[in-house]
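Review session, final week

We close the course with one last complete record, chosen because it touches almost every idea we covered. It is Helix-turn-helix domain-containing protein, a protein from Gryllotalpicola reticulitermitis with 292 residues. Go through it on your own first, then we will talk.
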Amino acid sequence: MPPTTDPGELGAFLRARRDELDPEKFGFARSGSRRRVRGLRREEVAQLAAISVDYYVRLEQGRVQASATVLATLARALRLDDDQQAYLYTIAGKTDARPRRRRARQQPRAALRRLLAQLTSTPAIVLGARMDVLAWNPAAAALYLDFGEVPVAQRNYLRLVFTHPALRALHQEWEHDARDAVAALRMEAADTPDDPELARLVGELSVQDEDFRAWWAERRVNSASYGTKHYRHALVGELTLDCDTWTAPDGSGQRLMVLTAAPGSPSDERLRILSSWGAHEPRAARQSEGRG
């Protein structure tokens, strides 16, 4: 059966999107103090989507369900990108009808464990649902931290980005990277709206961190699987690394995140030094199994 609709979230998402649009870019003149909203008005969105104002108001208020046709016109009217459109359809219950997989117990796939063992000079991490860290190699421990020293219940990449001082300091562009991670989690949340662990994670971070609370409320979504990370490591200095993520083909939702540097670059040399140092740390090697 299709995902459960969430009228409240749908309305909040639509409001968040229209609030960030410039009326002048849509041909709507600003009228100074008479304009009480920073973005598009409800009637302006309705006009762009060719639907009645009353219908759109009831849609934002969660009093009516949107058809796939209406969602398509709203996506065009609000100029939603691919990720935002996917999220819109999911929370409106218009995604595909494949049954959801249970995510109660996460164990890294054997094939991903083998890949970690073969990636000796390349930091790599296996991420599960909610960005839980399931397994890692010694190079990743040398770059980030020894995940084995983090309690299993706290071993979550997003949580650590916000709450672990060393990992937070590692990111030269922390705000950019953290916001991307929040948007990725928001994208995942659309597929698992009833996940109690996800709700607990969001609740904890919302209480602990003002930035997370504000960025989660923005309802930005992002499913990008690649990008560039800029780090400043305490031992080897600045690193510019390509970050690529591959999703396991078995539908488990597990992902392999790998960080590499351009061959012959200063970052490549520093990464090799760091990985060599990490390879001689026995605890990191033992904990790369990701047990627990």
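Two points worth writing down before the exam:
The two ends are 33 Å apart (CA to CA).
The chain has two domains: 7-91, 110-287.
Good luck, everyone.
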